[in-house]
Each structure stands twice: as structure tokens, then as C-alpha cells.
Amino acid sequence: MAAPELSVRLRGLAKSYWRGALEIPVLTGVDLDIPRGGYYALMGPSGSGKTTLLNLIAGIDRPTGGELEVCGYDLNGLDDDELAGWRSRNVGFIFQNYNLIPVLTAFENVELPLLLTDMARSERRDRVDRALRLVNLADRMRNYPRQLSGGQEQRVAIARAIVHDPGLLVADEPTGALDARNAEEALVLLEHLNQELGKTIVLVTHDPKAAQHARVQIHLEKGVLDRTVEVHDRPVLPRILEDRG
Ligand SMILES: Nc1ncnc2c1ncn2[C@@H]1O[C@H](COP(=O)(O)OP(=O)(O)OP(=O)(O)O)[C@@H](O)[C@H]1O
Fold first, then answer.
1. Per-residue pLDDT tens for 58-108?
2. Is the CB of 51 within 6 Å of ligand 1?
3. Which of 22, 42, 128, 210 could potentially form a cystine with 205 if both were Cys, beta carbons 3.0 to 4.6 Å apart?
4. How far apart are CA 198 and CA 183, in angstroms?
5. What gap in Å lies between CA 109 and CA 128, rounded to an integer?
6. What start and end residues bound the annotated signal peptide (predicted)?
7. Four-CA torsion 50, 170, 228, 33, nearest 10 degrees
8. Is the ipTM of this complex over 0.90?
């Protein structure tokens, strides 16, 4: 078990891919501690391994070496079924292209992670209502993704990521497909989830403005952490979450 105050603890984390007999090392020894409630941005040049690292932290890929403790569990010690169960309880995912299911309404998309649990229907409904209110989309719950703007789709995706109340949110370029106004709105929402609900957030981004919302920026270079920068001049936010109850 990891120290309870840490959400993520990585030691010598390594990941290689193989092309035939040729090993392609992507991460070659990453050490990183992310405290519970931390907000970290992973940055670095294209191909530096940001998404690879995020996928390892989120338990959707396996390392080829090193230690990996996330949300209190040694992920290397879990078999594939256990890892899937761990993911469904502990991690919320937010992607660049939202990954909503087109034939499901906003409500049904947000409900999806709860269908993996044995939660009663009435509680599922309450949770989905609450999550959609939180992202200010309660009035669009019957809409299909094609009936929503990109910014609204991403907010539905954020509601889906938090509906099962995971401790850790991972976001891979969540603003990459959004215009400046919608990007800012999504970032403000993430920041509230961090500040007011205490979610640990790990965000992969190329966008310096997005990274400015994080508390710590981690720069990857050639498979290792190159430098860590604390963000001091983060934007000041109005408190909004409790208003959406
Ligand atoms: N499944 C895979 N099989 C083989 N090589 C892979 C695989 N996934 C990633 N790679 C390689 O690993 C390296 C790191 O990829 P990764 O997507 O983690 O980088 P990134 O920093 O997120 O890049 P970008 O900013 O362009 O998204 C790249 O060279 C990529 O081609």
C-alpha cells in the first residue's frame, strides 16, 4: 500500500515498446510523487512519453519496469481483472475527443460508469443528475452528443468522469479540440473539481495556458522527468460548485 497522503508514487518507472526485435524505450526511469489533491500538468515535446505515462498512472497500460502505486494500490500486484475493477472505482478519464457514445443521450453517457457497479437505479439517477448539474448541463440530459456543442460534449465527458466519485482524474489534452472560450470553461471546471472536491488531477497538455491552471508542471524529455515547476500565479477562481449543488 502507498502512503495515504500520496495519490501517485512512481519509482524507476519504465516503458518500452517493441517493433519486432527492436526495443523502443519511451520511459526510462521516472520518479514522481503526486500528493492527494494535487493538480499536475505533464508537458514535453511530442513523442516524449506524456500519454504513455498518463496511461500507466491510470492503469490502462502496464509498465515494463519500476514501481507504480496509485490511489493506495501497487498496480503491478493486480491482475487484469483486479486492475479493471480498481480503474472503475478510482479513476475518471477525460479525453481530447470526449469519447461519448453517439447513440446514447447525455444522461446515458454519464450513467455508463455506474452500470459497472451494483448501484440501485434511483441512486444512479441522483448521481447522474448531480454530475450534470455540476457541469451546468442539467437541461441537456436528453440530448445526444450530435445535438451538443464541442464545449458541452466535453462537459458531459467531465460529468461522466466524476459520476462515480473517483479520487483521481486523468485528462489527455482535454482542451485540444476546443476554442479558447470553451477551453477556459473546461479548465475552470477542472480547477474547481480539484480545489473544492479535492480530486487529484493529472493533465497532459501542450497548451501553456492550460498548464497554468495546474499547481505543478512536470516536463518530460527523452523518457525521464526533465524539470518540475511550481505554478505560483494561477488564475483566481470564483466559487461555483456549491451553487450548482
Ligand atoms: N502502442 C504503441 N506501440 C509502439 N510505439 C508506441 C505506442 N504508443 C506510443 N508509442 C511511441 O512512444 C513514444 C511516446 O508516445 P506518447 O504518445 O506517449 O508521446 P506524447 O508525449 O504523448 O506525444 P504527443 O504529444 O505527440 O501526444 C512515441 O514515439 C510513440 O510513437
1. 999 999 999 999 999 999 999 999 999 999 999 999 999 999 999 999 999
2. yes
3. 210
4. 21
5. 9
6. none
7. -110
8. yes
